[in-house]
Write a structure and sequence with these properties.
Layout (H helix, E strand, L loop, with lengths): L18 E7 L3 E6 L4 E6 H10 L8 E5 L2 E8 L5 E3 L9 H17 L9 E3 L4 E3 L10 H10 L9 H7 L5 H10 L37 H16 L1 H5 L9 E4 L6 H12 L3 E4 L1 H4 L6 H15 L3 E5 L17 H19 L2 E7 L7 H4 L6 E4 L5 H13 L10 H7 L4 H17 L7 H9 L15 E2 L1
Parallel strand pairs: 9-12, 9-13, 10-11, 11-12
Antiparallel strand pairs: 1-2, 2-3, 3-5, 4-5, 6-7, 7-8, 13-14
Helix pairs in contact: 2-5, 10-11, 13-14, 13-15, 15-16
Length: 468
């Protein structure tokens, strides 16, 4: 959701262009449309300074100005050049647009080899992806490019066959060229112009090397996902010999903020498969039969792009117990029946179903039976040890004072949502920058913790995950 605009409508920028409206924003930047249809990126001094220090932009490309007493920097773009967040996933419409993003990715990597670019701003005019250094989990370049090319589908460029099926408007040779221009591995192209992907037709192995799967701060949940999903995917022959063709559907349940969504997102990124989502916001409809039809469409799309992941979020919203009042109407019964039919079929077609809920007791018992969801996993709030591991990971990504003792913060954040942990580090970094410091210090983190009191209903949980 866009926050309050820093600049008023009609504000005259240094290039003589009035502001028309705000388009997007984050903590340290805002993106505006100008009256000529172009765009203007306004960034705070701390972010502009990081880009200039890293050499991602030359000083003359950013224009400084002061508004309401705060120093800001501006970068503009004409109508014919894209200036947009990478996470907007405005997929290219032409081959030349795909090449422009690939060139920006490679050029940026020649300057900055380490910053994650999933949160970057694509500045086509200068062929750059400018990282915003958010504290969200980093994403590999093959995932960033795959999501951009497909309009947001989480697929690795290493899964070439599946990637090409999602960008069918592009020739195979063109897609290979895009990958090569981005500096990512690509299959060789034959004299016929086709890529040599015959060996990939019956395998899910990526072309790019993967870092080990990891859920920082959640070792038990990480162990479960490795054993019951990742190992089966990575060693199919061994499991198929004993009749295990594909991982079983799984439910993660627990209180809000315990890390269910975080775990599923990391799993999807690691697998590199296309992902599809069913949620109350995406499929709910007041019309009879309409919700069931939408459910069927999502399952069919997942099957068409298999192997893939289908994520069911807040499943209690549309899979409520049919014996309860909320689930007793005819169309609700029909929706549950549609899921009962589709979930077993999904695994047979190499679609991994991952569901999440805060209210497992509200879900229809028929959905919870083995054969539909073989695993129902309870995820508790993070313990002190788990919070400390996450704090160490988040702080390690930022310039920080040596010898920071994060144990007291971990004790205070025990049992709090993981988003609170990320907020404290992000707020601490902001406070340190505001105080003119170059590194994150303990005093700033403590002040940030005081600025983030536990919200009502945020009980403390310290038990490990269990299985039912």
């Amino acid at each position: 959701m866009i926050k309050d605009a820093w600049l008023p409508v009609g504000f005259l920028l240094s290039e003589g262009l009035p502001v028309r409206r705000i388009l997007d924003d984050d903590v340290d930047w805002q993106l505006y449309q100008t009256t000529d249809g172009g765009r203007a990126l306004i960034v705070k001094e701390v972010l502009a300074g990081r880009w200039l220090q890293a050499g991602l932009l030359e000083t003359g490309l950013l224009s400084p100005f002061v508004f309401a007493g705060e120093p800001l920097w501006m970068l503009t773009s004409r109508v014919d050049h894209r200036l947009t967040p990478v996470a907007a996933y405005q997929s290219p419409e032409t081959y030349s647009e795909a090449l422009a993003f690939a060139d920006a990715l490679r050029t940026t990597r020649c300057i900055d080899a380490h910053s994650s670019l999933h949160d970057a701003l694509f500045v086509e005019r200068y062929s750059r992806l400018l990282p915003t250094y958010s504290l969200s989990a980093p994403v590999a370049d093959d995932q960033v490019l795959g999501a951009w090319l497909t309009g947001g589908v989480r697929v690795s460029t290493g899964a070439f066959r599946r990637l090409h099926s999602l960008v069918g408007w592009m020739k195979v040779s063109q897609l290979v060229e895009v990958l090569e221009r981005a500096g990512l591995p690509a299959p060789p192209v034959l004299e016929s112009g086709l890529a040599d992907i015959a060996l990939l037709a019956h395998t899910t192995e990526p072309l790019v090397a993967k870092v080990p799967f990891q859920l920082v701060g959640r070792p038990e949940l990480e162990r479960f996902l490795r054993e019951h999903i990742i190992d089966i995917v990575e060693n199919p022959a061994r499991y198929q010999a004993l009749g295990i063709a594909f991982p079983s559907a799984t439910i993660l349940h627990g209180p809000p903020g315990c890390g269910k969504t975080y775990a599923v997102e990391r799993l999807v990124e690691y697998l590199g498969w296309p992902s599809f989502e069913i949620s109350a916001a995406s499929i709910a409809s007041p019309y009879i039969h309409e919700t069931s039809r939408k459910v069927a469409e999502v399952f069919e799309q997942a099957v068409e792009n298999a192997p893939s992941v289908l994520v069911i979020d807040e499943m209690e919203a549309f899979l409520a117990d049919r014996e309860l009042g909320a689930g007793s109407s005819h169309h609700r019964v029909e929706e549950v029946a549609e899921f009962l039919r589709r979930i077993p079929e999904a695994g047979q077609h190499q679609v991994l179903v991952m569901a999440m809920t805060n209210r497992i007791e509200m879900v229809d018992p028929a959905i919870l039976r083995r054969g539909r969801f073989d695993h129902v996993v309870r995820v508790e709030m993070a313990s002190e040890t788990e919070v400390l591991a996450l704090l160490l990971e988040l702080v390690s990504r930022l310039p920080h004072e040596a010898g920071l003792d994060l144990a007291p913060l971990a004790r205070s954040l025990k049992g709090r949502p993981l988003s609170d942990v990320a907020f404290v580090v992000r707020e601490g970094a902001r406070l340190a920058a505001r105080a003119g410091r170059d590194t994150l210090d303990l005093a700033s983190l403590r002040k940030a913790l005081n600025n983030a009191p536990a919200r009502e209903g945020g009980e403390s949980f310290s038990r490990k995950i269990g299985f039912t």
